[in-house]
Design brief:
Distance between the termini of chain A: 27 Å
Protein name (chain B): Xanthine dehydrogenase family protein molybdopterin-binding subunit
Strand content of chain B: 25-35%
CATH superfamily of the largest domain in chain B: Aldehyde oxidase/xanthine dehydrogenase, molybdopterin binding domain
Helix content of chain A: 25-40%
CATH architecture of the largest domain in chain A: Roll
Number of domains of chain A: 3
Keywords (chain B): Molybdenum, Oxidoreductase
Strand order of the largest sheet of chain B: 3-5-1-12-9-10-11
Helix content of chain B: 25-40%
Number of domains of chain B: 3
Oligomer: heterodimer
Shape of chain A: globular
Pfam family, one (chain B): Ald_Xan_dh_C
Organism (chain B): Paractinoplanes ovalisporus
Bound molecules: FE2/S2 (inorganic) cluster
Structural class of chain B: alpha+beta
CATH class of the largest domain in chain A: Alpha Beta
Order of helices and strands of chain A: HHEEHEEEHHHH
Number of strands of chain B: 29
Radius of gyration of chain A: 18 Å
Low-confidence stretches of chain A: 1-40
Chain lengths: 197, 728
């Protein structure tokens, strides 16, 4: 398989300046801003949620959305912010098995919740059938909406409600793809649907 | 491996990273010590900021700095160096349009920066902005162009002499690129060296613009844009937010990330100008053109921007006519900067002329495909040059067959299916197809792989895979042996930006040239290096084929050869020239769109139910990504016809500046799309024969939808978008 990694062609200096960026184990990731927040104890909320199978205790500013916490604090940047208003679907993740737009989900409400992001979808290094299907059918171009599309599709397939192409189109219409890879997305969901049965 | 991957289905090499969320986009970087910026935009349409109260923001927790015109940070005007806007952000108190940047708040967390920005207040003196094309026009013309037949005094005279005349005026409001990735910049200074992570269609141009606005040597700025969440034109210039982010990071001595909110994007990173166009056709009763006039009025913001020229890429190059005149006027308005958006002039221009052609077909009773064939051009009607290669007639015929055009209802509003009216329409696609200069570096490596690098960008176009396919083809190696590199301004200078549908057509020749030179360099090393089994041979007796170097019975793969020589790699860099735009040939890509719509008789609801398009683009490099690009363009046409519109209010506020009100197509808006291309390499454009295709699908597709709606309903909607209220 061709390898295109973010460290291709990177200088040592650049690598040093970015150390920690690619960490994946939640427990080892420093929580940026945690110190500053500790000063402001009265406004904080303690939350313990499970993210991609790892129990993750957090102290959060009540304004923090699940999207921003995933991206800025847990460094799970696979989940994307396209609008921050619930209008585009780029930030779709699963909370307790249901798809949600993480930009409209406050972490303070997630005590005990089970959160799955694109980083937690595959089984180890093997791609999830949907991930492979998106590659096979070119269900993306720039790739920015793709994590949200895939998380949405996983929930749609799980639901069992989308069988025909038209049902898939309807169910996937909360996820905007400006590159307009829609026909490929429908084909990818169909392929994965059959494999996931 | 002997089968070339050119033209075959190659999966995106960046696919695995993108489907797992591991491809890093600009806002995904977290350098140590990162702080966050949030912009403040002006809330009046034109005027002066009298004062800003930043005291609450400064006192808010975690705030590190508040920059305004009154406590600014130095940024140098780089407009002359291809900037989009002619003013310099935060350097004066003038408000030139509503939504202009007037401040930046930096804090230790995203939430704190955003909330502190909301605490800043501004006092303005304001005047009424000019926002309406109709009220401020007609614009000034950079110069009409025309060709008149001998003895004809004017285009009006030619039109007046025609037995059949059509006058069509079409209009559309502003449209927005709405790339899914909001513009974001992460700026990291180390000593006096800046690394800027941002989306970009041309990282090298981007770096030089940023360097100019910071007053530093170009070599001091490195732009990294390996993954870019869509561009469509909006990521060609370096916009103010990137300059501000870089300057503030330098002033604060901290890495800084500024991500625009979706709403802010609608006024800060360019839009497609609103435009009104009038096309007049004069024809014989058998449909042959006698005269064509295409006039337009588009915005030219007072802050400057992209001039929308809808006729020069459409009417001026589309149909044979003895008399033609185009006049593309620009109206000065107090709107945010305009910028090229996919098929910048061609998409609106084709809507105008292809709608007019449909009206001419209706008036003369000639089939729309036949009408276009009767007016087929083998030379540019205005410029007079021959086309380098043109098979548009085949596109019409093959498309008509695939689509079942012969089943089109001849009379408008004559076919129904229950409460649904059914109609079919077609239109022509055309987009410039030349190639520009480019550069590439190819490197044989001792791990058995080959780096293929070019300072271009992949905004979703498939450029990563294009580099791998081009390298694999030129070297006779598997695609999987290629390691593409792009999206980094530190790559060899002269890379092609992803603009004008030209990156692939421009870059493949550069990769081929660099591959040839790398092979030459490998052979030279093989004969010169004392540890090489080919040492001392005449280079003319040494051959390279499919990764192996051989001479007589001696043969060795390049990996083993490099290892034997103790050399980690052998590389070559090549620059290739573009094609002279004023040369003897006109380079255009072509296509024919066929569309079926269903319109509900009672509600006016419009559904696009089928779409077939056939294209003539020369050689296709990667079938899979080419298809996606063409389909994407067609869907943009559906959006342009039915959804996308941002009217501006008299106070300068865009009425639909968010993704709930500015509608772009979603999955349920899009039917199965049948895309097909002819296989005619263009012998004039390059050895490989590839012209561009990234914007082509978006040209003419809106007209095909509109023409189908007319066929279904008998109603001609000339003000885009075609919404259900206009059909009731
Ligand atoms: S970012 Fe959450 S829906 Fe757009
Ligand atoms: S792949 Fe670019 S937005 Fe969907």
């Amino acid at each position: 398989m061709p390898v295109v990694t973010q460290s291709e062609g990177m200088s040592r200096r650049e690598l040093l300046s970015r150390s920690g960026v690619v960490a994946t184990a939640v427990a080892t990731v420093p929580l940026i801003g945690a110190d500053a927040l500790a000063e402001e104890a009265p406004g904080e909320v303690g939350v313990r949620m499970t993210v991609n199978g790892t129990v993750t205790p957090l102290t959060v500013d009540p304004r923090e959305t699940l999207l921003d916490v995933l991206r800025e604090r847990l460094r799970l940047t696979g989940t994307k912010k396209g609008c921050d208003r619930g209008q585009c679907g780029a930030c779709t993740v699963h909370v307790d098995g249901e798809r949600v737009v993480s930009c409209l989900t406050l972490v303070a409400t997630l005590g005990g919740a089970r959160v799955t992001t694109i980083e937690g979808l595959a089984d180890g290094d093997r791609l999830h059938p949907l991930q492979q299907a998106f590659i096979d059918h070119d269900g993306f171009q720039c790739g920015f909406c793709t994590p949200g599309q895939i998380m949405s599709a996983a929930a749609v397939i799980e639901d069992g409600r989308a069988r025909t192409d038209d049902q898939i189109r309807e169910q996937m219409s909360g996820n905007i793809c400006r590159c307009s890879a829609y026909p490929g997305i429908v084909a990818a969901v169909q392929q994965a649907r059959k494999e996931m049965r | 491996m002997s089968v070339s991957p050119i033209g075959r289905e190659t999966a995106r090499v960046d696919g695995p990273l993108k489907v797992t969320g591991r491809a890093p986009y600009a806002a995904d970087y977290h350098p140590d010590g990162l702080v966050y910026g949030h912009l403040i935009l002006a809330t009046v349409g034109r005027g002066t900021v009298r004062e800003m109260d930043v005291s609450l923001a400064e006192a808010a927790p975690g705030v590190l700095a508040v920059y305004t015109p009154f406590r600014s940070i130095r940024i140098i005007n780089d407009f002359a160096g291809r900037g989009a806007e002619n003013y310099t952000v935060l350097q004066d108190t003038t408000v030139r349009f509503r939504g202009q940047i007037i401040g930046l708040v930096v804090a230790d967390t995203l939430e704190r920066a955003r909330d502190a920005a909301a605490l800043v207040t501004a006092e303005y003196t304001s005047t009424t902005p000019r926002t309406s094309l109709a009220d401020s026009g007609p614009g000034t013309s950079p110069g009409a162009e025309q060709v008149l037949a001998p003895g004809v005094g004017s285009i009006d005279e030619a039109l007046a002499s025609a037995p059949v005349t059509i006058t069509t005026t079409v209009s559309q409001h502003a449209q927005h690129h709405v790339a899914m990735e909001p513009h974001a910049t992460t700026a990291v200074w180390q000593d006096d060296q800046l690394t800027l992570y941002c989306g970009s269609q041309g990282p090298q141009r981007h770096a030089s613009a940023i360097a100019a606005s910071l007053g530093v040597e170009p070599a001091k700025v490195r732009v990294i844009a390996r993954y870019t969440g869509g561009g469509f034109g909006s990521r060609v210039p370096a916009w103010n937010e990137a300059k501000l982010c870089a300057a503030a990071a330098r002033a604060l001595g901290r890495p800084l990330k500024v991500v625009l909110t979706r709403e802010q994007l609608f006024t800060t990173v360019g839009h497609r100008s609103a435009v009104r166009q009038t096309v007049r056709l004069g024809a014989e009763s058998d449909g042959r053109l006698i005269a064509l006039s295409h006039e337009s009025d588009a915005e030219m913001p007072a802050v400057a921007g992209w001039p929308l020229m809808p006729a020069e890429g459409t009417s001026a190059v589309l149909y044979r006519t003895p008399n033609i005149r185009i006049d593309q006027r620009l109206v000065t308005l107090d709107t945010p900067s305009t910028w090229a958006m996919r098929g910048p002039g061609e998409a609106p221009g084709a809507f105008a002329v292809e709608t007019a052609f449909d009206e001419l077909a209706t008036r003369t009773g000639i089939d729309p495909v036949e009408l276009r064939l009767r007016n087929y051009a083998v030379r540019e009607p205005l410029g007079g040059r021959r086309f380098s290669s043109k098979y548009l007639d085949q596109c019409y015929r093959v498309g008509a067959m695939r689509f079942g055009w012969d089943r089109r209802p001849r009379r408008p509003r004559s076919r129904t299916d229950g409460d649904w009216l059914i109609g079919m329409g077609m239109a022509t696609a055309i987009y410039q197809g030349g190639r520009g200069s480019s550069s590439a570096r190819v490197q044989f490596r001792d791990d058995g792989r080959v780096t293929v690098a070019s300072g271009t960008s992949d905004i979703g176009t498939g450029a990563w895979t294009m580099l791998a396919v081009a390298g694999a083809d030129a070297l006779g190696l598997p695609v999987a042996a290629m390691v593409p590199e792009l999206g980094d301004s530190a790559l060899p200078p002269g890379g092609s930006a992803a603009v004008g549908s030209g990156a692939t057509a421009s870059t493949v020749p550069a990769v081929q040239a660099a591959c040839r030179s790398a092979v030459t360099a490998l052979i030279r090393a093989a004969v010169e290096n004392p540890r090489s089994p080919f040492h001392g041979l005449d280079p003319a007796d040494v051959r390279y084929r499919q990764g192996r170097v051989s001479s007589g019975r001696r043969s060795m793969g390049f990996r083993d050869l490099l290892r034997a020589m103790g050399v980690p790699d052998v590389q070559a860099v090549e620059n290739t020239e573009g094609i002279d735009r004023d040369g003897p040939y006109a380079f255009q890509s072509f296509g024919a769109h066929f569309c079926e719509v269903r319109v509900h008789r009672l509600t006016g609801d419009i559904r696009v139910s089928r779409f077939t398009s056939v294209f003539d683009v020369g050689t296709v490099i990667n079938a899979r990504t080419a298809r996606s690009q063409l389909i994407g363009g067609i869907i943009w046409g559906i959006g342009g016809a039915l959804l996308e519109s941002d009217p501006i209010e008299p106070d300068g506020r865009y009425a639909a500046a968010n993704m709930a009100d500015y509608l772009v197509p979603v999955n349920a808006d899009v039917p199965a799309i049948d895309v097909h291309w002819l296989d005619h390499p263009d012998p004039q454009v390059s050895e490989v024969g590839a012209r561009g295709l990234g914007e082509l699908g978006n040209v003419g597709s809106a007209a095909a939808v509109g023409n189908a709606v007319f066929n279904a309903t008998g109603i001609r909607v000339r003000d885009l978008p075609i919404t259900l209220d206009k059909l009731l």
